[in-house]
What does this fold into?
Amino acid sequence: MNEATTSAAAVLIAPEQVAEIYRYAEATYPDECCGILLGRDTAEGRVVERLLEIENTWDEVERRRRFLIQPQDLLRAEREGRRSGLDVLGFYHSHPDAPARPSEFDREHAWPWYSYLICGVVQGKAQTLTGWQLRADRSAYDEVWVG
It folds into this structure.
């Protein structure tokens, strides 16, 4: 996990949830995994209360370096969250054999406000989890504290 802090919202996530992301990232390696973060936006940060694993629907070649969440999966997550009083806080995905930093493709397809967690996976083993939030002008990401 990282130690960077910015004006963007910190992501408060339990060690068990980090382990869950690591397991999913390792299970889908060498493809990118992806999922949705459900929780509450508080004064202390974004508190992740539930993770939803989502199938990466890119074709076989592209999913090694990209992830795609279908609109119906996002709608399902929003409905599930509402039933529990939770919001969609953001998304997580893995970067197989690549740094746990947003790519230009990630930036072009991200939305401001949401939190993005990236799990770095090296030779099938999850190594790190970093957090990011896209600036309102979409020019770049700010790294956020994850813990």
